[in-house]
Known about the structure:
heterodimer, A: Alpha-D-Glucose-1,6-Bisphosphate, Chain A, domain 4, 7-stranded antiparallel sheet, 47% helix, elongated, B: mainly alpha, 42% helix
Amino acid sequence: xxxxxxxxxxxxxxxxxxxxxxxxxxxxxxxxxxxxxxxxxxxxxxxxxxxxxxxxxxxxxxxxxxxxxxxxxxxxxxxxxxxxxxxxxxxxxxxxxxxxxxxxxxxxxxxxxxxxxxxxxxxxxxxxxxxxxxxxxxxxxxxxxxxxxxxxxxxxxxxxxxxxxxxxxxxxxxxxxxxxxxxxxxxxxxxxxxxxxxxxxxxxxxxxxxxxxxxxxxxxxxxxxxxxxxxxx
Amino acid sequence: xxxxxxxxxxxxxxxxxxxxxxxxxxxxxxxxxxxxxxxxxxxxxxxxxxxxxxxxxxxxxxxxxxxxxxxxxxxxxxxx
Lengths: 233, 80
C-alpha cells in the first residue's frame, strides 16, 4: 500500500473553485477522461450529495495489459459532498475497473485557506493498493507516480476552467452590450425605414396625382389631336 | 463532457447546463431547492441507467471491498 498526499493553494475564492470543479472535464490537460455521468444527486440538510461515474481511456503498457486485459476504457466511482455554509467540497474516487487487483482511492477536498479565506486550499490524498500481482510494490510506485503527475495536471485544469468561466462572463457582458447596440441600431433603422417608406408613399401619391392630372390633360387633348389628324385619312 | 451513452450526451448537456446555473446562482447563495432541474435530471437518468446496463457497469460492485476478501484474485503460483 502506498499513500500519496499533496496540497495546493488557488488564488480564487472557494465559490469560484467549486464551480470550476464541476466543469473540470473536458480539459486539455486530462484528455484521458472521456465522460462523466451523474448517477445520483440530492440535497440533504443543505449539503449536495453527488455520485458520478467517470470514464477514462488509459493507454496501458504491454506488460500491464496481460494483467488487466485489453480494456481501454476504465470506470471510476466518484462520491462528493458540497456544503455551501461551511464552504467545503470533498470528492472521493475509487476505480471500478480492475478492483480485484488494484484499488486506487483518491480524496480531494477544497476549502477556504485557513490563513486567507479569499483563497482556496486543495488537499489531495491517494491510497494505492495492489494485490495478487507480481511486483506489487513496483506497480504501486508506478501508479503513485502517475497520480502525482496527474495531480499537477488537475490543478492546471482547474485554473484553465476558471479562466474559461471568466472569459464566458466577459463574453456574456460583451454580448449584452452588443445586444443593446443592436437594439439601438435596429430601432434607428426601423425609424429610417418608416420615414423613407412614408416619404416614398408621399412621393407615390404626388406622382400618382400628377400622373392622373397629366392623363386627364392627355385625355382632354386627345380629341383635338384626333380632329387634327382626321383630314389626312 | 460526454455521457457513456452516446445518445445520452444531448440530454446530459441540457441537464448540466441547468445544474451549473442552479449551482452558482441558487445553491451557493443558500437556496437548496433543486426542483428546477428535476425534469432534465429524470430523462437524463433514464438514458444513463440504460447505457450503464449495456456497458455492464454495476455500481454496487464498488461498494464492497474486494481486496483482502475471498473474492480477491489469488496471486499466480510461484515457479518451483
